[in-house]
């Protein structure tokens, strides 16, 4: 993507995750362009990338909207993600470089600062640090096929909404998982890395399900 398209991608993605563009609502291309304060050309390229990542979806009539995820969709995404993340971690444990391990430590330090923010946990910072952490693991796995599959399965909307419901204790537990993964990678322990990644995703799934059930109870 061009620099302008990357900026449009960043702005639209942030708008989706913040709820500025509600799920299920059709959004004209002009509205995205106005939101980004850009011409339609870079916005069109950004939309195509977001559709590929499933943060946006096209209807049969080619209209763009933020997808609505059902309970079954969410459960399946977490199950698929657990399988892919465990495979990714196992490959990374075998192939990861010292430089990439250092990058993981840097991202962990960033997440620590987000959790310990003086006015309460910085959720966007936590989500961003988490995204970068897992991106390094995916790069270390050295599999283009896996990278493409992960792009479709890892819904950043679900990741963001899950993190929004995390207590500080939940975030700290997630961070302990991250630190343990770094230890497993340092030792190139494939089985340990695989087990940690599976537990990490299943823990996030449990928080998300609890959040969903609480929301349904409140509405009822």
Summarize the structure in short.
This protein is mostly helical and 220 residues long. The protein is built from ten helices and two strands; from the N terminus they run H-H-H-E-E-H-H-H-H-H-H-H. Helix 1 crosses helix 3 and helix 4 packs antiparallel against helix 7.
- Provide the spatial order of strands within the biggest beta sheet: 1-2
Instruction: Name the quaternary structure.
Output: single chain
Q: How much of the polypeptide forms β-strand, as a percent range?
A: under 5%
> Tell me, what's the shape?
globular
| β-strand number | 2
User: Segments where pLDDT lies below 50 for 5+ residues?
Assistant: none
Rg, Cα atoms, Å = 18 Å
Structural class: mainly alpha
Please explain how this structure is put together.
The model has no long low-confidence stretch (mean pLDDT 88). By secondary structure, the protein is mainly alpha-helical. The protein has helices at residues 3-18, 29-36, 40-52, 71-95, 98-115, 123-141, 144-153, 156-165, 168-186, 190-219, and strands spanning 57-58, 64-65. Helix 1 (3-18) packs across helix 2, helix 4 runs antiparallel to helix 10 (190-219) and helix 5 (98-115) runs antiparallel to helix 9 (168-186). The longest helix has 30 residues, at 190-219. The termini are far apart. Helices cover 76% and strands 2% of the residues. It has ten helices and two strands. Strands 1-2 form a two-stranded antiparallel sheet.
């Amino acid at each position: 993507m061009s620099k302008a398209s990357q900026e449009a991608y960043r702005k639209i993605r942030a708008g989706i995750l913040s709820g500025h563009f509600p799920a299920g609502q059709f959004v004209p291309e002009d509205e995205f362009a106005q939101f980004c304060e850009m011409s339609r050309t870079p916005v069109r390229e950004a939309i195509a990338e977001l559709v590929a990542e499933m943060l946006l979806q096209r209807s049969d009539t080619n209209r763009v909207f933020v997808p609505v995820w059902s309970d079954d969709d969410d459960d399946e995404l977490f199950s698929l993600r657990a399988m892919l993340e465990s495979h990714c971690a196992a490959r990374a444990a075998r192939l990861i470089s010292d430089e990439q391990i250092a990058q993981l430590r840097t991202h962990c330090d960033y997440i620590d600062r987000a959790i310990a923010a003086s006015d309460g946990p910085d959720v966007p910072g936590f989500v961003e640090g988490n995204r970068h952490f897992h991106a390094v693991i995916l790069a270390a796995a050295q599999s283009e096929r896996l990278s493409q599959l992960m792009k479709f399965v890892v819904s950043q909307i679900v990741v963001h909404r899950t993190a929004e419901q995390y207590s500080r204790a939940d975030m700290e537990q997630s961070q302990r998982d991250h630190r343990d993964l770094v230890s497993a990678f340092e030792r190139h322990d494939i089985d340990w890395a695989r087990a940690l990644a599976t537990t990490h995703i299943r823990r996030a799934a449990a928080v998300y399900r609890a959040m969903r059930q609480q929301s349904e109870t409140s509405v009822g």
